[in-house]
Amino acid sequence: MVPTRSLLCLSVVAAIAIHGTTTHAFSPSPGLAGRRVISSSSPSSSSSSSLLNMEPPKGCAAKPFEKKRIAIFGAGGYLGATAFGFLQRAASIYGTGISASSSPRSISATSGGLEGLNKVLGPCFKLAYAGEDLARLVDTSSTSHMTERLKTFDACILGTTYQLEQRAVTLNTYEKNVNDKTYELYLDERYGAWQNNVPENDADVHESIFRNSVRACREAGLSHLVVVETPRTVKPSDFISILEEEGGMTYTYLRTMSPLKKDKTYSFEKGITNQLNVKKVRDGSSLIPFDAEKSEKEPAVMREDFAALIVQSLMSMDWGESRILEVSSNPESTVSSGFGGKTPANKPMRFDRDWCPNSGMLAEVLSAL
Fold first, then answer.
1. Model pLDDT for residues 12-47, shown as the tens digit of each residue
2. Radius of gyration of the chain (CA)
3. Residue 101 — φ and ψ, nearest 5°?
4. pTM, whole model, 2 decimals?
5. Which residue, of 119, 262, 274, 282, has the greatest Cβ tally within 10 A?
6. Element housing 168 (H / E)
7. Which residues contact 3 (CB under 8 A, 6 or more apart)?
8. Cα–Cα separations (whole angstroms), residue 225 to 204, 251, 291
9. Cα–Cα distance between 223 and 201 in angstroms, integer?
């Protein structure tokens, strides 16, 4: 017969072993949550060791239990919708610090924004869906109207110059009469958007929308903005000036001088395809507008990689500071998640615990800044 004391010891050891296994499987560290690394240009072992040695996250992933609610303007555009999809996945994974409580929230001018968003979420994020509880329609000419729909949120993703489409104001929202028209906002672009009724010189429209949006975010009490400079932006410095003039919030301003390219068969399991080069722009430097003709000589940045970087910047970058980051493709760092392949046990690879496969490489790049 085994002595009672021995049985007790065995029970304690077994309990510790079970507890340890559970913690390892379901509670990843905040800096590496939801990430795997498989690189086709360098051994995965060296990539893994560099991830373990990198600086801990300073953004919302630094305190993952303090979940942050994120809003995004123009989520009906492809870049905005892809970023929304990544946010939705990140919100379901512990360690990212992103809330799933009515978040992420799509901010658009009409129901066309939500329609465009779901057309991307379905095929690219395994039949993901954004219901009306995750969307708010706003009058972009009214700061107070936007402020009410941003209250209780912590951070927001904004574009500088959106793709505009004139549409009827959705009934029972903020219309003054049944014939009211407004401009829908698409972050980046939406395939098939009707642009015939958009003024040729719409710089004033974008500047007004941006100023009102930033002001609304400040008055709603948000603490950080991620601003995406789109290739349509003619005067980047004007938008930086607005951010500085309105004050009260820090920001991460992302821009690229490379052309943006889309993967027409994208699924989130593919993750990122390039580690990307990211560098800080020195304070006071003049920002040269994107030049489509000159950019043809540069390797393209995949829109999906850029969207993942937007989300990763929220997790990794300190919300207490402002910065301007310039993004370009790294031709020597092509990566693959192994999507479609098999594990050593000859089973299909699973990505249900990844908000974006290989996103740890983006975390590594940002932690080095």
1. 334 434 343 333 333 343 444 444 444 444 434 344
2. 22
3. -85, 100
4. 0.87
5. 274
6. strand 163-168
7. none
8. 21, 5, 25
9. 32
DSSP 244-277: HHH-SSEEEEEEESSPEE--TT--GGG--SB--E
Residues in the chain: 369
β-pair partners for 166: 183
- b vs e for 272-282, b when ≥16 Cβ sit within 10 Å of the residue's Cβ? bbbbbbbeeee
CB contact burial 166-192 (16+ within 10 A = b; e otherwise): bbebbeebeeeeeeeebbbbbbbbbee
Q: How far apart are CA 97 and CA 311, in angstroms?
A: 11
Q: Coil, strand or helix: which one is 211? A: helix
Q: Which amino acid is at 42?
A: S
Express each pLDDT in 141-174 by its tens digit.
999 999 999 999 999 999 999 999 999 999 999 9
β-strand partners of 279: 326
Binning the chain into helix, strand and coil, the percentages to the nearest 5 are 35, 15, 50
CA distance 213 to 205: 12
User: CA nearest 107: which of 128, 90, 83?
Assistant: 83
Has residue 307 got a pLDDT over 80?
yes
CA distances in angstroms from 109 to 7, 81, 135, 269, listed in the order given: 66, 15, 10, 31
Which pLDDT score is estimated for 162?
97
In whole angstroms, give the CA distance from residue 182 to residue 140.
9
Alpha-carbon torsion 245, 158, 55, 333, what sign?
Answer: negative
Q: Are strands 277-280 and 323-328 parallel, antiparallel or unpaired?
A: antiparallel
